[in-house]
Amino acid sequence: MAAKSDNPGNQSVDAQEQMVAGSAWMTAGSIFSRILGAVYIIPWSIWFGTFFLQGNALYGKGYNIYSFFLIAAIAGVPSAIAKQVAHYNALNEYGISVRLYQRGLVIALGTGVAIAALMFFGASLFTGGDANLVPVLHSLAWAILIIPTMSLTRGYFQGFQQMAPSAISQFVEQLARVIYMLVTAFLIMRVLKGNWVTAVAQSTLAAAVGALCGLLILGVYYWRRRGYFRSLVQHSNNQLVVPANQLYREIVTQAVPFIVLGAGITIFQLIDQYTFAPIMHAAGHYTDAYLNDLFALFGVNANKIIMITISLASALAITVVPLLSEAYTRGNKREISSQLTNAFLMFEFVMIPSALGMSAVARPLNIVFYGHAQEALGASILAFSSYLSIILGLYTVVSALMQGISQNKRAVKYFLVGTVVKFVVQWPLVYFLGTFGPLVATGLGFLVTCYLIIHSLNYQFGINYATIAKRTNGILLSSIVTFGLARAVVWAGTWLLGDNRIMSFVVVAVAAVVGGYFYVYTMLHSRLADDIMGPRVAGLRRRLHIR
Question: Rounded to two decimals, what is the model's pTM?
C-alpha cells in the first residue's frame, strides 16, 4: 500500500478525486434507483385506471409515515457508522471500526424490531382517520425489520470509501421492488379485478422484497472482501482501547442528530399530510376525495419526479461526510474549507441544470408519467416543484456537511428554526394559495435552515465565495440557455406531434438530449467541468471531440 503524501496540495487533489469517484458511484446508484422508482408509475397508473389518483394518494401517505418510522428505526446509525468508521480509519485503527459495525448491528436489529412492532400493532393510531391506511402500514412494517441492517452495512462500506457496494445494492433493491409492485398490481387490478386498496398494500409490501434482495447483494460483497478487511485490522496501530459502552455511546451520540436531519424532508411532508385537508376544509367546501386528488398532485406525483434530481444532491452529501470527518480529525481547516467549496460547486454543477431542465419539460413529462388527469394543474405544480428541488437538494448537502464536521447539535437547532417557520406560514399560505401553499411554506422553511447553516460554516472555516460566484455565473448562464433550448423543443414538438403519452415521451427525450448536450458541451469546452469535477473529465472531452 502506497504511503500517503505529506503535501497538503496532493492531499487536496486526492480528496477531490476521492469525492468525485465516490459521488460518481453514489450518484449512479441513486439516480438509477430514483428513475426506476418513478418510471414504474406509468404502467402502474394505467392498470389502476380511475382509481389511480386515490391509489397514489394512499401510497404516498403510507410511505410518508413509513419513511419517518424507517428513519427512527435506522436511528441515523448508518451515517453515524460511516462517519465514525472514517474517523478511526484515519487513525489506522481498523479494529475499532469493525467493532463499531458489530455494535451498530445490535442497535439496528433492536430498533428495527421495536419500531416495526409499533408500526404494525399501532397502525390505526397514525392513519389520521383513513382506515385504508391500516393494511398499507401493516405491509410496510415488514420492510423495517430488514432495512436497518442493510443500511448499516452500506454505511460501513462508505466509511471505507467503498461506494460501489452501496450503489449496486441500492439499484438491485429498487429493481426487485418495482418488479414485485408491477406484477402484483397487474394481477390484482387487471387479472383478478380486485380491490385497489389491496393492490396498494401489495405495492408497499414490495419495499420488504427489495430490501431483502439489497441485503443479499451487500452480503456477497462483504464475503468477497473479507480478506481485505482482515488485512487492515491486522496492520492497525491497535493503540486505542475503546470500551463497548463507549462505542455504543459514540454511535447514539452521532446517530440522534442524523435522525432529525435525515427526516427533515419527510417531517415537512408529514406536516403537509396532516394539515392540508383541515386547512382546505376551512377555506372552502371540498370533498375528501377531491382533496386526496390534490394531495396526490403536489405531495406524491410531483415529489416522486423531483426526487430524481434531489437524489443527485443526496448522493453527494453521503459521499462528503466521511471525507470531511477525516479532514476534521486531522484538524486541517484549509482542507475543510476547500472541500466545502468543492461540495457547493459540485451541487450547483448537477442540480441547477437538472432543476431548470425539468421545469422546461414539466408539461410533457407530467403527461408521460401521469397521463391527462388534472393535466394543467399537475404540470404547473411539477414546474414549481422543480425550482423548489434546488432548495431541498441544498438542504440535504448542507445538513450532511454540518454532520461531517461534528456540528450536529447546531444543525438540528437550525433545522428546528426552519420547522417553526414552516408551521407559522403553513396555514395562511395553504388557505390563500391552495395546492401551492405547502410548497411555498416548505421552500421558506428550508431556505431559512440553509442560510443559517451556510452562515455558520463560513464563519467557522471560510467558504471561498469568490470562486463559487465566478463558476456559478458560468453554470447559471449555461443552465438558462439549456432551459430555453428545452422549452423551444417542447413547444415545437408538441405543436408537431401532439400531446399523447408516447409523443410526449419523444418530446421529453429530444429536449433532454438537445439541452443536455449543450450544457455538457459548454462545461467541457470552457474547462469549467475540469475545475469542478477534476482532471478526469478530460477523457470525456476527448471522446466527444470537444476542444
Answer: 0.78
